[in-house]
TrEMBL record:
GO terms for molecular function: serine-type carboxypeptidase activity. Belongs to the peptidase S10 family. Keywords: Carboxypeptidase, Hydrolase, Protease. GO terms for biological process: proteolysis. This is Probable serine carboxypeptidase CPVL. The keyword Protease applies. InterPro entries: AB_hydrolase_fold, Peptidase_S10. The keyword Transcription does not apply. SUPFAM superfamilies: alpha/beta-Hydrolases.
Amino acid sequence: VLIYNGQLDIIVGAPLTERYLQVLQWSGQKDYLAVKKEVWKTEGSSEVAGYIRHVSNFWQVL
């Protein structure tokens, strides 16, 4: 499962998605809440491209 949010998305903003994922009840919720976001950089670059968080087969990308 992949949930992708654009940081500047005006329809469903990233904070709204974050909040939803914190209260969504599912089998991996406890593990998801314990995992910290990681900085995502494109290969060969030091520039931040976004942030990722993943647990098992669930990925969140911002």
